[in-house]
UniProtKB/TrEMBL annotation, chains A, B:
Source organism of this protein record: Kumtagia ephedrae
Keyword set, alphabetical order: DNA-binding, Pyridoxal phosphate, Transcription, Transcription regulation
Annotated CDD domains: AAT_like, WHTH_GntR
Record PANTHER family: HTH-TYPE TRANSCRIPTIONAL REGULATORY PROTEIN GABR, TRANSCRIPTIONAL REGULATORY PROTEIN
Transmembrane regions listed in the UniProt entry: none
Pfam families xref list: Aminotran_1_2, GntR
Name by which UniProt lists this protein: GntR family transcriptional regulator
GO MF term list: DNA binding; DNA-binding transcription factor activity; pyridoxal phosphate binding
């Protein structure tokens, strides 16, 4: 297809996207649009025919072309900026969820199954086999079972966050918790702030809500507050989504000063904050929380048990203002009928209440501390440097040796059955090209380091060959 | 608050809703708008102050009022037409999900827990306790476990529907399946057809997507095809959502002729059909299915196991075109990370594969046939007449004795701890005021009929008293 045809197609697509041409409208005549675009009529004919084949427009014989009355389906992988598929936020998710067992997954976002409290889970399952018929067969209450909400309420009180069981809504997962909040607060085109870098699925989720995603540069003490205020002023965002403790992907912790200034900035710009606390149980000691500082006035706390208990037993939660919880319940009933599965809530409650859970967490923290230290040392041997050494959790956010393109490295490694998480999938501004997120719990296989070394060496040769090529071309 | 103030507020709200006044725009000055609305300036001041208190607009001192840059949250119970709360689609859902155990629930949409295959469920749970760590602790594949998709694929083949395991996507519930499809295909303002009457949560879900909901009158053989074509022509809908077999709330079955004509109409108007097959296992023998006739070209099949297996173990499915499944996977990853819980899928698979499941279904069908017959007889004694006698399932769609308002009857019954489902919650056009949906499996308690009789008698007295009152008033 010629460039001119593509330009004509792009011009029509832009007019449809901006609603300058609405559903059912007649397109400009071939002759008119050829003059507008300064192309030949045959180019416009080809462009219109191709758009008709795609379904965006339709020909009515003897009358011209019309915008189809049916909007094209929302395909997320294409609605964001044009990215190489390896840099798409879905790439890492789908590759890691659907990976063959032969693939090592230092790029994934969870612990290996044998690091999880499986004995406690099995005890919870055996207990479930003796539960009432209603637990096994019935729908649950709209907020989720009271016993689990009470337990969460007590845990929150322990960190200074007052939230009664009625202020807690159990959901199908942590992601579903944020999704419900977005349904409630975010309309297409609304601006939403996220950290840059931040968890890639925040971007995917916000694309599904057709939000305008604005990145705020992240520092080792939290988001850069000046840039946060700047973004708030320019974009008037509806929402800011963040992890305060053990931030994904950097492992950083929000400082008290940053937390205080952030909350003031959010208040000045009338912004809601979603604090995703999914990594809380990995912390060696508690760190500042926006929800606790704010008292759930403009902060919504969400979380889940996928990282420390089970990702198979799906359960998330929202703690928020009572009037918001009411509206969120309606939304959850409308869009998934029940919220959390009562069976799942029962298993989570039993496992969390199991005497062994606290010990499991302590052992897990020690094990992860060792894994972070050892992995950091091994990565440094390859010239890969952690941006900081996190206080807890399983992520290391690392700079690659100079000039290396993390996406190219990730693609090459996947050919050798090692799944990596290249920096730009976390970066709204696409400025983390030289970074990579490593999951230290998924790196016990020495093969991973061998592949990394080989792939980095090859990318070095490629980089210098390309530099040589450009030099030659420049001569 | 005066009527004039309310009118001014409504006028501003309408301008904001239609974007005639966009986010950040300055409102007309007090003086100007008082002239426009033909009211006193103080009325406009009061209206603006009230709107500012609600957060829709904001005052900037010395500069006037501006539309808040933050859209109001989406509260579903208010976004539909103004309805009495008893007629709100959420009323029945929330009342029945959160009902006190003392409340009898002939209005709810599920079987009592002790009618479910609890022995098979317990066997499945005990088996789960011996599963691999990965099943208990890990995320699952994006489509859901292959074994369950294979089983569904074989079941579909048995009814003449070809859908390989890759064309099947497991979801968190049947409602989530439809929700994902709406995210994929429906944009705010798009028209969607539903049967009138139809399952009330279709309306709730479509409100969450801000779709325009268009009802098509339902006949004992399926939707009225002429009215369907009329609605398709006028509203150019994106989607039609229906139950073909054992339609909710009527229990009717789609006839082969209606199915064929519907598909042709959908093709002529380039419409997608979602066929919700959740009641399939209650059918004594198979009836026509749009998905089978169409071969999953423009029909999407969805379903779940909540009605015949367990509503606690959440699992739904989508069978659709392969390219659509790919896009739906991205949407599901973005909005709930994993799809179905692997633990839930394992339990469903084990229970469906249990030798006892088929026998359970046979016994259940016989038990329901008796309950339908007995309940219909008891209801007729109270002057309540089934619209038709369904071939299967647990619903009876009934006309109340003449002139009775089902919503008033439902409100009165709830005061006596009996939850009913009044007709208009199912009706987009609000023309089922004299109808009620009864769940025959939830009516073994004789108290229900006593309450019904009492409440009907009281509403009769009320109706005649009102008639008398109007007569007196007219004199």
């Amino acid at each position: 297809m010629g460039t001119r045809t593509a330009e004509v197609m792009a011009a029509i697509r832009a007019r449809v996207a901006s609603r300058a041409l609405a559903s059912g409208d007649r397109l400009p005549s071939i002759r008119t649009f050829a003059a507008v675009m300064d192309v030949s009529p045959s180019t416009v004919v080809e462009a219109y025919d191709r758009l008709a084949a795609e379904g965006l427009i339709r020909a009515r014989p003897g009358s011209g072309f019309y915008v189809s009355t049916i909007a094209p389906p929302l395909t997320l992988a294409e609605t964001g900026p044009k990215l190489d598929r390896a840099l798409d936020p879905f790439w890492v998710s789908r590759q890691s969820l659907d990976a063959d067992p032969a693939v090592a997954k230092p790029g994934c976002g969870w612990l290996p199954a044998d690091w999880m409290p499986n004995d406690a889970l099995r005890r919870a399952v055996r207990r479930l086999a003796r539960a009432d018929d209603a637990v096994l067969a019935d729908y649950g209450a709209t907020r989720g079972p009271l016993a689990l909400r009470r337990l969460l309420s007590r845990r929150f009180a322990g960190e200074g966050l007052e939230a009664g069981p009625d202020q807690i809504l159990l959901t199908g997962s942590g992601t579903q918790a944020i999704d419900l909040i977005c349904r409630f607060l975010v309309r297409p085109g609304d601006a939403v702030l996220v950290d840059d870098p931040s968890y890639f699925n925040f971007q995917a989720l916000l694309r599904a809500h057709q939000a305008t995603i604005v990145g705020v540069p992240y520092t080792p003490a939290g988001p850069d507050v000046e840039r946060f205020v700047e973004a708030a002023t320019v974009h008037r965002p509806r929402l800011y989504i963040t992890n305060s403790a053990l931030h994904n992907p950097t492992g950083a912790t929000l400082s008290p000063q940053t937390a205080h200034r952030l909350l003031n900035a959010a208040a000045a710009h009338d912004m809601t904050i979603v604090e995703d606390d999914i990594f809380a149980d990995f912390e060696p000691e508690p760190s500042p929380r926006l929800a606790a500082l704010d008292g759930l006035s403009r902060v919504i706390r969400i979380g889940s048990f996928s990282k420390t208990l089970s990702a198979s037993i799906r359960c998330g939660y929202i703690a928020a203002r009572p009037d918001w919880i009411e509206a969120l319940i309606d939304l959850q009933v409308a869009t998934s009928f029940g919220g959390v599965s009562p069976v799942a809530a029962e298993l989570v409650l039993a496992a969390l209440s199991d005497g062994s859970y606290r010990k499991h967490l302590e052992a897990l923290r020690r094990r992860l501390a060792r894994a972070r230290r050892d992995t950091a040392a091994s990565l440094r041997m390859l010239g890969i440097s952690p941006w900081l050494l996190p206080r807890g959790g399983f992520y290391l956010w690392c700079g690659l040796p100079d000039g290396r393109d993390a996406a190219a490295v990730a693609r090459a490694a996947l050919r050798e059955n090692v799944l990596l998480a290249p920096g730009d999938v976390f970066s709204v501004s696409q400025t983390a090209t030289g970074f990579m997120r490593f999951n230290v719990a998924q790196m016990s296989d020495a093969r991973i380091f061998a592949v990394l070394e080989r792939v980095l060496r090859a990318s070095e040769r490629e980089a210098s060959a390309q530099a040589g090529g450009s030099l030659r071309a420049a001569r």
